[in-house]
Automatic annotation (TrEMBL):
Residues 184-425 form the Hexokinase C-terminal domain. Residues 27-177 form the Hexokinase N-terminal domain. This is Phosphotransferase. Signal peptide: none annotated. The keyword Heme does not apply. Belongs to the hexokinase family. Keywords: ATP-binding, Glycolysis, Kinase, Nucleotide-binding, Transferase. It comes from Salix suchowensis. PANTHER family: HEXOKINASE, HEXOKINASE-1. Its EC number is 2.7.1.-. Pathway: Carbohydrate metabolism; hexose metabolism; Carbohydrate degradation.
Length: 431
């Protein structure tokens, strides 16, 4: 099995470290009203979070989700941030009087920005490069907080960005609020990334003051991991070459939601062209990049009807391929299974790499029983249950039964947004 070869994973991954954060300090006694803006790859979410302090914890959390129009993903920085700020302003305009702030006090926002950033302070950072379908050249190298702040001003919105957070770091912080043993956060959504808690002494690149806790959070940017040992096929190479970011985010392109359906499409196209899988003509729709989305792939994969009626419908509705035989539909499901299984097993191998690096892949003799919680978030992990099941089974297989009992995978729903609000709270000038 190819993933067994990935023994060098931890060190290679660590070469891709982009950011160091001082250890997350969340006391669970933060109090008040905070906002979060979570800009992922497909949608963005605006959250309003009410924190009740030590005894009450999270009192209330409300959110709205807006999809990002595709033209804005490849337009200008101003156009993207104006759109986001306008939605934020709309969210605020709709809120009731109970959320009115006393005069002189500004609303505070944690900004989850799920793209590689060179963090320059808790509330500033320059965009290193775009990933996942985004390509807005004039934003690269700019401080994304300054861009958002300017756009909010243009909307007449009186709001202050208190924290800039990567989604993995947000998920780690949000996860910590519920589970004290969170040591790793993994995002499997449109893209993929991971963060983990590292002993500050184990970070040779860090020359600043050591945090009191002795720990720091590392945003790995693991989506950008690449290695000659990764088992890339001709379909992966072709998809990468034709992507907006060739040569980049190779691991992400094998495991994350933006790409799985597209890989299935490419294999089906080849089967149609070279083996007349769908008869004498190659169905024209099958030639359209990204026409088969991962949610549709996942719906086909999960079709439990004996005659695979949902597969038939998807093939007809999306690819305009009618009259498929049951045999053909079974092959389509098997192909979804192969692509999802490869992705989830590689994601599990990545998690094993982290656990090895932090010494959580063994059971310690004597002493307290060590527990490790992995906070997971992202639409792929949340909705593609064959994928998540396979990921969890693979991790158990890699770690063995005994160690697996000390590791738990928890779905930290909306953890990245909540974490950003918590970090905004813990960096609030008013508290
Ligand atoms: P983002 O990654 O953009 O922050 P999400 O975490 O919500 O946002 O993940 C959205 C992604 O999750 C989609 O792009 C898609 O790839 C994947 N996804 C959403 N729903 C499903 C589903 N039902 N089955 C499989 N994948 C899904
Ligand atoms: Mg996200």
């Amino acid at each position: 099995m190819y993933w067994r070869k990935i023994y060098f994973f931890p060190e290679d991954l660590l070469r891709h470290m982009r950011q160091y954060f001082k250890s997350i300090v969340i006391h669970s006694d933060e109090k008040g009203l905070f906002y979060a803006l979570d800009l992922g790859g497909t949608n963005f979410r605006v959250l309003r979070v009410q924190l009740g302090g030590k005894d009450s914890g999270l009192i209330n959390q409300e959110f709205t989700e807006v999809s990002i129009p595709p033209n804005l993903m490849i337009g200008t920085s101003d156009a993207l941030f104006d759109y986001i700020a306008a939605e934020l302003a709309r969210f605020i305009a709709q809120e009731g009087q109970e959320f009115e702030l006393p005069p002189g006090k500004q609303r505070e926002l944690g900004f989850t920005f799920s793209f590689p950033v060179m963090q320059t302070s808790i509330a500033s950072g320059t965009l290193v490069r775009w990933t996942k379908g985004f390509s807005i050249d004039d934003a690269v190298g700019l401080d994304v907080v300054a861009e958002l702040t300017k756009a909010m001003k243009r909307q007449g919105l009186d709001m202050r960005v208190s924290a800039l957070v990567n989604d993995t770091v947000g998920t780690l912080a949000g996860g910590k609020y519920s589970y004290k043993d969170v040591a790793v956060a993994v995002i499997l959504g449109t893209g993929s990334n991971a963060a983990y808690v590292e002993s500050a002494q184990a970070i040779p690149k860090w020359h600043g003051d050591l945090p009191k806790s002795g720990e720091m959070v590392i945003n790995m940017e693991w989506g950008n991991f690449r290695s000659s040992h990764l088992p890339l096929t001709e379909y992966d190479h072709a998809m990468d070459n034709e992507s907006l970011n060739p040569g980049e985010q190779i691991f992400e392109k094998l495991i994350s939601g933006m790409y799985l359906g597209e890989i299935v499409r490419r294999v089906l196209l080849k089967m149609a062209e070279e083996a007349a899988f769908f008869g004498d003509i190659v169905p024209p729709k099958l030639k359209t990049p990204f026409i088969l989305r991962t949610p549709d792939m996942s719906a086909m994969h999960h079709d439990t009807s004996s005659d695979l009626i949902l597969v038939e419908k998807k093939m007809k509705d999306i690819l305009e391929i009618g009259n498929t035989s049951l045999q053909t539909r079974k092959v389509v499901v098997e192909l979804c299974n192969i692509v999802a299984t490869r992705g989830s097993r590689l994601a599990a191998a990545g998690i094993l790499g982290i656990l090895k690096k932090i010494g959580r892949d063994t059971v310690k003799d004597g002493g307290d029983e060590q527990k490790t919680v992995i906070a997971m978030d992202g639409g792929l992990f949340e909705h593609y249950s064959e994928y998540s099941k396979c990921l969890e089974n693979t991790l158990t297989e890699l770690l063995g039964e005994e160690v697996s009992k000390t590791i738990s995978i928890e779905h930290a729903s909306d953890g990245s947004g909540l974490g950003a609000a918590l970090l905004a709270a813990s960096h609030s000038p008013y508290l």
